[in-house]
């Protein structure tokens, strides 16, 4: 598993502030978006790396974890990616190795599911996408609160207290397991995080676009949960410690279908009926978007099925990038119920227009009259 230098991916120094990181991310996301370079697999991979780097560096907690990991990555890699807390491991100096009569603490990483297509490196050390703050997180990784060696004593040889580093490890998804005295090889007790509590929040596409809130009841307590803009089916919003008994609460969103729109990620698609006159002569036609109405210029001679792109009129993105687009597919509606006068006028017009056979050169071309 290769180490990913998120700072290098975004082209920012390690001292970069949040504004600098956000600016770099937006610039690169625009350059490498799949819509800009359709079919370019290398650009698609680059775009995923950019999103992943932003998901970590834009989150202060994950950035802290990542920075702590970076300083020890070479030793971890040289150890073959095994137990990083074993003797001689890159994290042994933090006091999680042998602790004399107090026993020792062993850490294991546990997770399941696919964290929204992020790399193996990200999944191993973070367990999923940024939850509630950035990219959609589909991982169900569990992380218990790290525990100190028995008796609350600092392990022999430790150069610092353990609480900060324990928080980092817990956030990475490592579970602590109390074991017996050093070298006994037998587990005397296991400390696991309590199961997280999940609640489902149904919302409309309009609510997903604008953001909203929901009331969730846990152990008799009513909590107001803020649903950020841009959530999709399966987006997970984490409320740390709000599930009762110290458990985390995950609110999983379910966006109801909307008959007027078809959603593809951050892009929206819809159909727009236009009149024969608007199609023939051209016009400015009002189009409804989730962000309000806009005017779409229809060129003269527009055919049914032509698709127009309204840039930036799609869904917001959870990761803070540019919003998606709205694609409008026009459908020409012909007049019906013509009276005799209108029919005669139509015949005169069609004769003057002298339209070529639209089926010429196709298998449907007219070759004979069947009576």
What does this 3D model show about the protein?
- It is a single chain.
- The chain has three domains: 152 residues, DnaJ domain (Helix Hairpins), CATH 1.10.287.110; 59 residues, HSP40/DNAj peptide-binding domain; 92 residues, Urease metallochaperone UreE, N-terminal domain (HSP40/DNAj peptide-binding domain).
- 26% of the residues lie in helices and 22% in strands.
- The chain is built from ten helices and 13 strands.
- The strands form five sheets. Strands 8-9-13-12 form a four-stranded mixed sheet. A three-stranded mixed sheet has the order 3-7-6. A two-stranded antiparallel ribbon has the order 1-2.
- About 24% of the residues have low confidence.
Structural class: alpha+beta
Radius of gyration: 29 Å
In total, the number of strands is 13
What fraction strand?
15-25%
Q: Identify the overall geometry.
A: elongated
Helix content: 25-40%
CATH class of the largest domain: Mainly Alpha
- Could you give the distance between the termini? 73 Å
Number of domains: 3
Biggest β-sheet: strands ordered side by side in the sheet: 8-9-13-12
Mean pLDDT: 74
Poorly predicted sequence stretches spanning 5 or more consecutive residues: 93-116, 128-191
Largest sheet: 4 strands, mixed
CATH topology of the largest domain: Helix Hairpins
Number of helical segments with 4 or more residues: 10
CATH superfamily of the largest domain: DnaJ domain
Order of helices and strands: HHHHHEHHEEHEEEEEEHEEEEH
CATH architecture of the largest domain: Orthogonal Bundle
């Amino acid at each position: 598993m290769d180490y990913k230098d998120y700072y290098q991916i975004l082209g920012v120094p390690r001292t970069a502030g949040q504004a600098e990181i956000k600016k770099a991310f937006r610039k690169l996301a625009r350059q490498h978006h799949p819509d800009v370079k359709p079919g370019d697999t290398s650009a698609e991979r680059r775009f995923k790396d950019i999103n992943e780097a932003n998901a970590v560096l834009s989150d202060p907690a994950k950035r802290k974890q990542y920075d702590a990991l970076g300083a020890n990555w070479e030793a971890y890699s040289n150890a073959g990616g095994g137990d990083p807390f074993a003797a001689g491991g890159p994290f042994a100096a933090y006091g999680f190795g042998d602790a004399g009569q107090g026993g020792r603490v062993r850490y294991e990483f546990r997770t399941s599911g696919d964290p929204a297509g992020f790399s193996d490196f990200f999944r191993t050390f973070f367990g999923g996408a940024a939850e509630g703050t950035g990219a959609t997180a589909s991982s169900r990784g569990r992380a218990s609160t790290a525990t100190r060696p028995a008796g609350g004593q600092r392990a022999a040889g430790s150069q610092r207290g353990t609480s900060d580093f324990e928080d980092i490890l817990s956030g990475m998804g490592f579970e602590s397991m109390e074991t017996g005295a050093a070298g006994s090889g037998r587990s005397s007790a296991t400390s696991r995080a309590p199961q997280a509590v999940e609640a489902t929040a149904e919302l409309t596409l309009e609510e997903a676009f604008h953001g909203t809130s929901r009331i969730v009841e846990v152990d008799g307590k009513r909590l107001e949960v803020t649903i950020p803009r841009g959530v999709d089916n399966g987006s997970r919003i984490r409320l740390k410690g709000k599930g009762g008994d110290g458990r985390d609460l995950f609110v999983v969103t379910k966006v109801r279908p909307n008959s007027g729109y078809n959603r593809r990620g951050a892009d929206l698609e819809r159909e727009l009926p236009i009149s024969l006159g608007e199609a023939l002569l051209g016009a400015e036609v009002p189009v409804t978007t989730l962000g309000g109405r806009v005017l779409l210029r229809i060129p003269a001679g527009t055919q049914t099925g032509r698709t127009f792109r309204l840039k930036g009129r799609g869904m917001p993105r959870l990761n803070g990038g540019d919003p998606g687009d709205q694609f409008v597919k026009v459908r020409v509606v012909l007049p019906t119920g013509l009276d005799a006068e209108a029919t005669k006028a139509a015949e005169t017009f069609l004769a003057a227009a002298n339209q070529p056979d639209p089926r010429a050169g196709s298998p449907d071309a007219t070759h004979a009259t069947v009576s």
